[in-house]
Please model this.
Amino acid sequence: MSNFSPIVGSDYPFPAKPTVLSEQEKLDYKTKIKQLLIDKDAVLVAHYYTAPEIQALAEETGGYVADSLEMARFGRDHSAKTLIIAGVRFMGETAKILTPHKTVLMSDLEATCSLDVGCPIESFSEFCDQHPERTVVVYANTSAAVKARADWVVTSSIALDIVEHLDSEGKKIIWGPDRHLGGYIQSKTQADMLMWQGDCIVHDEFKASALRDMKAVYPDAAVLVHPESPESVVKLADAVGSTSQLIKAAQELPNKQFIVATDTGIFYKMQQVCPDKEFLAAPTAGDGATCRSCAHCPWMAMNSLKAIYNALTDATGHEIHVPETVAQGALVSLNRMLDFAAEQQLKVKGNA
Ligand code: SF4
Model:
């Protein structure tokens, strides 16, 4: 294991909490945004962790709500001239890299991710340079520069398959930045992986002892866990997976109650696809708790209807730009993932 240890959780500069809008203000902004999307030939692409009203608006206007892999694919394939990304910065950068001819707007360019912040290109590159024989695999939650340094980009929905594939070819891997997701994949594949020691400040906060207590209170509930969570929490799961895989598990498992260890933003979609089931947030409190995010990402929370309206009204300070040389490098590792995902889909169809 590497000894690189980036910023510790409590040192992250958290953004201020967003202003809460009244129901009337939300309605007014929704009406205005709907018109602006038409006027600007724009489409709203939202992540599962954004506020329910943003996810609903994306769906009502022909946009999309998804995990980061599907957001990237949707943005790339949609005909709109402008993409407005409700998510965090690396998602906007990915959209821009895949569709450089489109205008890519974000409701707030300061909306980042602890994994991205905790994996600066200079030190990550130095780490890679020390192990030139290894294939560099990075999680999508990284800067464009880190993606350009990598051989492969992965999202949590496809990471396991790609590492399995590389391991079957005898490749040794450098994995960054999420140590929990990397550890989970290593435990499943036994691949030779050297880890960067980053973590997600939301998932890292889930507590196994408090989760055990909660399971005792809800004995019939199934536990759904995102693999960015600590190993002790993953071990208590009935299903482990990316956001879209957890939504699928909620639909397919027979349980009527679920304890969910991921950002609570996902409850909007889970409740929509399973209206007769109950979803409970996994605990971030209990022994050793230092929770500052309480199962909701402070950077995802920067996305608001007001911020989306502002971005569509005046793009200044909202448009994503990626330097061309960086974009070209990142495109290679991103396309490897997208091509791999497309091949896998073809295989699934062929076997169906
Ligand atoms: Fe990053 Fe975690 Fe926030 Fe996702 S929830 S954007 S991984 S800090």
